[in-house]
């Protein structure tokens, strides 16, 4: 099978890879590039564990062909923290104990950050609808939702002019 | 998976040539049906033709007083288009009931229509809206009503080499209103047990002058229930008109029994939803009048 040569920007860095025409972006991120923070839960768009941001929009990377990423920018969980500095969403997940096994967590954090990037003041209902495509089998969504609300509050503080 | 090629043509002509050149090639819009079906082994197309690089296939344009929605436009982009969302709230809401935010950032109404699932959420709203499709193919372009596309579950009327270029919605006037509602076992991320779209025109006296009612998930394809529209036209939405609407809707349902609902439940729910969706459309028509 002919491999395709794809050039993208992943977490701010130019990245090239070879892929099969039917490989998904998730396959390439995990098995090709070694960015294994993005998880595969269902491979059918139902669980959100594979959530990444493609050209500014959050998508399920299991339902994107890797070839579609040609010339596009991809942001994954690995790019959320700045060096050792956790993003407020990550810190609040720790504070609230909003994870147990942690398998769903990268997807939730990428999705929650995508929400707060566009709406720093979401209601609880908005958060719950926004995260409806992310499934967690352990935590029981309440701690997750509270972590996102507190991260939003923290971000609003940070953004306030001194 | 067998060898499948990937192409991302930049013009409509290239896409037509690629599709016409290989009968098992499939257009790719958001991939939220196609990639799932390829992964499960249900289909093994020889080529996937990504339509998203074709200029003009993504985005919403005004055409006269109406709208043209590029076939590769994701559902969330419809919500972000303020004029479209104000003119056709029912269509925009129907498209934004599909899946999750992640899914809607990719999923398109054209893919929803061409996947030809009886339960496709945007389709009854589009049929009620009297929307049309611009189709490109080896013999040039043609425009057909949305209702002419689905033929049976998973089957469309598109000929080899043809694909949807855009979906067109007519102009709106004073006294127009549309709406879509579905019934699902949970609040998000499920498949419609029944879906109902309504599109009304109401005059200054509150009398119905035009009505289109379309149902999803109650037959092999979307159903435009002409008798349900006729039951409302001329009325002021009194009890007798709603009773006639309910009877017309039940008579038009030929649903299946499955884990989501029995035949009797689907028929009863279709009548309930049709009434509710008309009331929502009526409120919008009144607000516009
Ligand atoms: C988790 C999840 C939840 C979902 N929930 C819902 C839901 O609530 N309601 C609902 O209705 N659907 C739902 N779906 C199904 C799917 O998201 C929709 O049907 C969506 O609108 C498909 O659009 P797409 O652009 O992704 O289509 P694609 O997957 O790209 O294509 C679908 C089919 O149409 C063909 N096609 C695509 N574009 C064109 C074109 N321009 N011309 C001709 N043929 C074309 C393809 O070849 C393919 O056969 C869900 C899917 C997932 C994964
Ligand atoms: S792995 Fe992609 S949504 Fe579950
Ligand atoms: S913490 Fe285990 S699935 Fe969410």
UniProtKB/TrEMBL annotation, chain A:
Gene3D superfamilies: 3.10.20.30, [2Fe-2S]-binding domain. Residues 4-80 form the 2Fe-2S ferredoxin-type domain. It comes from the Bacteria. InterPro entries: 2Fe-2S-bd, 2Fe-2S-bd_dom_sf, 2Fe-2S_ferredoxin-like_sf, 2Fe-2S_ferredoxin-type, 2Fe2S_fd_BS, Beta-grasp_dom_sf, Diverse_Oxidoreductases. Keywords: 2Fe-2S, Iron, Iron-sulfur, Metal-binding, Oxidoreductase. Pfam families: Fer2, Fer2_2. This is (2Fe-2S)-binding protein. It comes from Novosphingobium album (ex Liu et al. 2023).
Automatic annotation (TrEMBL), chain B:
The keyword Transcription regulation does not apply. It comes from the Bacteria. Residues 1-174 form the FAD-binding PCMH-type domain. InterPro entries: CO_DH_flav_C, CO_DH_flav_C_dom_sf, Diverse_Substr_Oxidored, FAD-bd_PCMH, FAD-bd_PCMH-like_sf, FAD-bd_PCMH_sub1, FAD-bd_PCMH_sub2, Mopterin_DH_FAD-bd. Pfam families: CO_deh_flav_C, FAD_binding_5. Keywords: FAD, Flavoprotein, Oxidoreductase. This is Xanthine dehydrogenase family protein subunit M.
